[in-house]
Write a structure and sequence with these properties.
The protein is mainly alpha-helical. It is built from 4 helices and no strands. The protein has helices spanning about 5-25, 30-35, 40-50, 65-75.
């Protein structure tokens, strides 16, 4: 077994875990996660692609807009 290959795999496993934990701690804020890791945001994004890490935040249900406010605002403009 080639020791270099084993070392490469170990580094990938450690990097992936650190990036995933940083993203969890920052609610998937990539800029904050990069700062936490001490790397540039572009480096974080490149590593996320390389390591197949999905950094998207869980989608929240949109807040219902108050329809009466919209009607009043449109009425005023007339």
């Amino acid at each position: 077994m080639d020791a270099g290959f084993f070392m490469e795999q170990a580094v990938e496993i450690i990097e992936k875990g650190m990036i995933e934990r940083a993203l969890q701690r920052t609610s998937a804020n990539q800029s904050a996660a990069a700062k936490l890791l001490g790397i540039h945001r572009n480096t974080l994004q490149r590593k996320m692609v390389e390591l197949k890490i999905d950094g998207k935040r869980p989608r929240r249900k949109p807040v219902a807009r108050d329809q009466s406010r919209r009607v009043r605002r449109n009425h005023k403009a007339s």
